[in-house]
Specification:
This protein folds into two domains: 4-147 and 291-311, Rossmann fold (3-Layer(aba) Sandwich), CATH 3.40.50.2020; 148-288, Rossmann fold (3-Layer(aba) Sandwich), CATH 3.40.50. Helices cover 30% and strands 27% of the residues. It has eight helices and 14 strands. It starts with a strand and ends in a 9-residue tail after the last helix.
Amino acid sequence: MDDLKVFTGNAHPALARAVTEYLKIPLGECEVFQFSNENIFVRIMENVRSRDTFVIQPISSPVNQNLVELLIMLDALKRASAGRITAVIPYYGYSRTDKKDQPRVPITARLIADLLTVAGANRLLTMDLHAAQIQGFFNIPVDELTALNILSTYFKKKKLDNPVVVATDIGITKRARDLAHKLDAPLAIMEKRRIGNKDQIETLNVIGDVNGRTALTVDDEIDTAGSLTNTVNTLIDRGAKEVFACCTHPVFSGQAIQRIASSPVREVVVTDTIPVNGERKLDKITVLPIAPLLGEAINRIHTGQSVGALFE
């Protein structure tokens, strides 16, 4: 593994360290910091010429700073003659801006793809994209991992009483159906409408039977938790005994933590694609590690094995 190098910026160093522990290699040495004028400086502190390099950096809060850090790190590796550069982005920020759904708006998810490629990325490794078509925004190979097996294994061990899996909107239905199949549970779907661009949700209807059941909501991310709390309240109004929630990406922006704390949701299960610590860590929030999955994917990419075989 001497020609394998893994680096990280400041977005999620704990995850990068856990991945390198899994791989049994040291974390690559580099300087990444911001000057007083907010310009970001990067220096790779070891030889990467012709090496297989990976940069682990979710595009999470502060989103724009972490994105620019990643772009500059990719450029630094390219100019240091790295053999192959893989951007490992557990959480792909701006992924919700994946189509032109209003007049005169950008497709920012495509713009980010172009920026990453121009900066020097030869490959992308990510997890549970908000929309599958984002893979097609790239002209380089994209490996999309999923946390579905991690989440389903956790809930299998909990042995929920009479469970029903609930898709929080129609767009997440396929992923929710896959989770329902793994848990041998029926599927319900929340029909909802988003009001404007201000993260306001109006829940309209529940498609499916949740009365007397333990509901498990599934989504790719929890942002402000407004949609989650509306969904939980609606499910309880429709007769659900108790409600659990799970997602891959714990964005938890704005009043999300306060909303979850005051919500009747029993437990919110997430992964650590984004760091969850300090005041963001409630007793009812459970964080599952993804380092073994990311580490094994990196190992397979490096050694030329199938990444898809991880999920067969």
